[in-house]
């Protein structure tokens, strides 16, 4: 059983999803605008968000990106949309979505994707974030590899690694990283590039490989070549 927020402005679609998920004894809340969804997420602890993109007031893309800025990147979001172009799907992942489900979809496929997302949350909560032989200890801010090497991360470096590992193998937009790290002011220079450079050097010195990669025109991603 999970506590799930369904964000969908089409009442019939929301009702159909709700009736199906109730079979599995999930606790369901419903939001019909982006603004309403943000308020409900702020006031409640959800295990999963099912998110439409074309919403009144705030789009699903902007809502999802707001979760990253508010430090809620660990909250799994499955986007649901009739927008099916590659650009739309990539934008969804760049905004912080964990998965992207094309409308129309079967309830069985929705349930399967929800099961995967909720399983990933349980792994993260119990063991930290793991990506291809690397593990980030959320409490200790320690990045380790499967060879026993470790790097103590501080402040900005930890936030960068956490956001990218949560999104891996998909990139995180540069604008999202900047808004997360410097939400109250626009830096005079380009501190993101300088901090990425410093982080990559620390990682290379510790693990003898590059795992932070630039995605031209988008941002940065955490990916390990095996």
From TrEMBL:
<dbReference type="InterPro" id="IPR016032">
    <property type="entry name" value="Sig_transdc_resp-reg_C-effctor"/>
</dbReference>
<keyword id="KW-0902">Two-component regulatory system</keyword>
<feature type="modified residue" description="4-aspartylphosphate">
    <location>
        <position position="52"/>
    </location>
</feature>
<dbReference type="Pfam" id="PF00072">
    <property type="entry name" value="Response_reg"/>
</dbReference>
<keyword id="KW-0804">Transcription</keyword>
<dbReference type="InterPro" id="IPR036388">
    <property type="entry name" value="WH-like_DNA-bd_sf"/>
</dbReference>
<keyword id="KW-0805">Transcription regulation</keyword>
<keyword id="KW-0597">Phosphoprotein</keyword>
<keyword id="KW-0238">DNA-binding</keyword>
<feature type="domain" description="Response regulatory">
    <location>
        <begin position="3"/>
        <end position="118"/>
    </location>
</feature>
<dbReference type="InterPro" id="IPR001867">
    <property type="entry name" value="OmpR/PhoB-type_DNA-bd"/>
</dbReference>
<feature type="DNA-binding region" description="OmpR/PhoB-type">
    <location>
        <begin position="126"/>
        <end position="224"/>
    </location>
</feature>
<dbReference type="Pfam" id="PF00486">
    <property type="entry name" value="Trans_reg_C"/>
</dbReference>
<protein>
    <submittedName>
        <fullName>Response regulator transcription factor</fullName>
    </submittedName>
</protein>
<dbReference type="InterPro" id="IPR011006">
    <property type="entry name" value="CheY-like_superfamily"/>
</dbReference>
<dbReference type="InterPro" id="IPR039420">
    <property type="entry name" value="WalR-like"/>
</dbReference>
<dbReference type="InterPro" id="IPR001789">
    <property type="entry name" value="Sig_transdc_resp-reg_receiver"/>
</dbReference>
<feature type="domain" description="OmpR/PhoB-type">
    <location>
        <begin position="126"/>
        <end position="224"/>
    </location>
</feature>
């Amino acid at each position: 059983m999970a506590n799930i927020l369904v964000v969908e402005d089409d009442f019939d679609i929301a009702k159909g999803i709700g009736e199906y998920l109730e079979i599995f004894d999930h606790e369901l809340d419903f939001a019909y605008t982006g603004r309403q969804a943000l308020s409900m997420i702020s006031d409640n602890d959800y295990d999963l968000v099912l998110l439409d993109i074309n919403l009144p007031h705030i789009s699903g893309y902007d809502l999802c990106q707001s979760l990253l800025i508010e430090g809620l990147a660990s909250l799994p979001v499955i986007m649901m949309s009739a927008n099916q172009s590659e650009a739309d799907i990539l934008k969804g992942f760049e905004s912080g979505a964990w998965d992207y489900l094309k409308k129309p979809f079967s309830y069985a496929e929705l349930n399967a994707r929800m099961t995967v997302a909720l399983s990933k949350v349980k792994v993260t909560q119990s063991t930290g974030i793991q990506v291809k032989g690397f593990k980030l200890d959320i409490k200790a801010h320690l990045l380790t590899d499967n060879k026993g090497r470790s790097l103590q991360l501080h402040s900005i470096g930890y936030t960068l690694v956490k956001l990218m590992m949560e999104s891996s193998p998909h990139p995180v937009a540069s604008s999202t990283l900047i808004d997360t790290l410097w939400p109250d002011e626009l830096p005079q220079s380009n501190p993101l590039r300088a901090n990425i450079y410093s982080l990559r050097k620390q990682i290379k010195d510790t693990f003898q490989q590059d795992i932070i990669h630039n995605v031209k025109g988008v941002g940065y991603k955490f990916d390990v070549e095996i």
